[in-house]
Amino acid sequence: MRVGRALAGGLFIRLAALITLALLPLGMIAIYQTHSVIDEAARLSRVAILGRTERAALGERELLQHTKGAASALAAAILPLRDQTAACDAVMQAFLKGQANYSFAGFATANGDLVCSSKGVSGNIASAPFFQKALARETPVFGVGRSLNGDGGFELSLTIPVRDNDTLLGYLTLAIPNRLTSAFYTSSWESEGIRFATIDGDGVILSSSEPMAQAGLIMPQVPDRAELWALAGQTFFATSKSQEERFFAVSEIIPGQVAVVGSWPAEAAKMTTGAGGLAFTLAFPILMWLAGMAVGVFGLHRLVIRHLSALRIAMRRYALGEREQAQLELINPPREFAEAQQSFNRMVAILSKAEQRREIDLREKTVLLREIHHRVKNNLQLIASIMNMQARSARSEEARNVLAQLQRRVRGLAAIHRTLNTNPDVTTVDAAELITALAKEIGAMSLGANHPVAITTQLTSVQLNQDDAVNLSMLVAETLTNAVKYVSQSGDGQCVVAVVLDRLDDNDCRLEISNDLDPLDQQGREERKFSSGLGARLIRAFVAQLEGTDKTTETETRFTYEVIFPHRSGLVETATAEQKDTEDHADLRSTG
């Protein structure tokens, strides 16, 4: 749709529309004058093809008409002999000796029982298609079927009813070998690729210039074979059953009974019928229009379009970052475009210098920011090491636990700065990478316990801004420490804590930390409740800063903590740094 509107609004299209409007009257006159000539020429050509098709079937038409007369005469001859089989057979045999065009003659009752025949055989032909057709119509019908002589070939037959006054006595059948009907279509037709077939009123093929087994391939594809008869006297293009486009002509040769179908190669028929002649006839008005278009388009392109295209390409290259080839160089431009070229090159020079200065500033700030994260990480790790030394020298268990918890939280902050320092994008943190580092560190702390804890992770890469990354890391550190502390052995003797981070949709993320429980450890269940303690208050504060919601699910064998929070990958907008620090400190003080 956008491409169409863009083309419609272009100079080429508008110029073409104006030139077309100017030349339209002349073109309409030329088209009107040639239209009637083309139609008349096409009509005469189609009539000529139809006539050639009828002439090709002239020999077969004469044979079929002669067969109708011979059948009527033979029916009259055997009428008094129908009850005398031997005499009837003799008449049939004598008839065939004097008629070389027929291979079989026979008379059958209405039940299909052969009373007499030229072969002197008896039998029943009631199941033969041609006999059933004659029985249904009680009129002379042409049909095709296997030879009644038993040689397995196809024969064209004529079956007529035999009556004594108004009483139907039976049916007389004369058979014509297929070789005789196909002989009428000479090799000259075949060399031109023209094929013929005759059909009855039902569209059944009676004879063909092709072998009967292949005759159907030259016929047009129609839903119903009987539709071919309705096309008698017409010519048309259609796809044959052999999947070729051909030109067909249909004409009756025996009115109401037999029609011939001519199948012509599409190329030869198009030349004969003038198909494509319309394009040649319209060549002059089209060439006139093209000449006017060529002059207008050439002038427009030479003076305007090529310079606009060069300007557009230069602007696109500059927008895509190709600064080395951004200068515009027009070839022999008009004065207006020369001024536009000068202004564009001056603008590019100014913007390129400003952009280079910004890139230098950005690189310096990026290096400085990485150095800050590196130093903060080192300082936090140093503080954690001092806490570790202090914890080892502490005498009371309570003091050691407090220092261990502080050390763990400080190391969580150090992990964030380490991730920011190694991340190419210093403004965001990969939550999956951050949680993996925390899980390894907390898992390493549990190696000295009686039952080492295995921490499994199933994490989706989620980019978070620095503020959410800090809150999430502290939340994971607190909840994961609790899970490691209260995990129990599962049925296979292992202590497993599972951490899952995934995206619910484009707006929300889900964090889930779960651990196995011992159904008999009632004391541990009481200690696990987040109703009191600094850790529980910190967890609630971190969830609030993430603007998320949390819930716990506890069964006899499993404890699950789940947090759903909004995903904010960009920088969080705040009024001032001082206001944000005040809000964070207020959240933490509210836990006290």
From TrEMBL:
Start and end residues of each stretch annotated as Disordered? 572-592
Which chain regions cross the lipid bilayer?
12-32, 278-305
| Ranges of biased composition (kind: Basic and acidic residues) | 578-592
Primary localization class, coarse = membrane
Subcellular location per UniProt equals: Membrane
- How is this protein annotated for GO cellular component? membrane
Q: Does the keyword Membrane apply?
A: yes
Where in the numbering of this chain does the HAMP domain appear?
302-356
Q: Which InterPro entries does this entry report, sorted A to Z? A: HAMP_dom, HATPase_C_sf, Sig_transdc_His_kin_sub2_dim/P
Protein name stated in the entry: histidine kinase
Q: Name one GO molecular function term.
A: ATP binding
The catalytic activity, as recorded, is: ATP + protein L-histidine = ADP + protein N-phospho-L-histidine
Q: What is its EC number?
A: 2.7.13.3
Pfam families, per database record: HisKA_2 (PF07568)
Name a biological process GO annotation: signal transduction
Task: Report the domain of life of the source organism.
Answer: Bacteria
Q: Which UniProt keywords apply?
A: ATP-binding, Kinase, Membrane, Nucleotide-binding, Phosphoprotein, Transferase, Transmembrane, Transmembrane helix
Q: What class of enzyme is it?
A: transferase
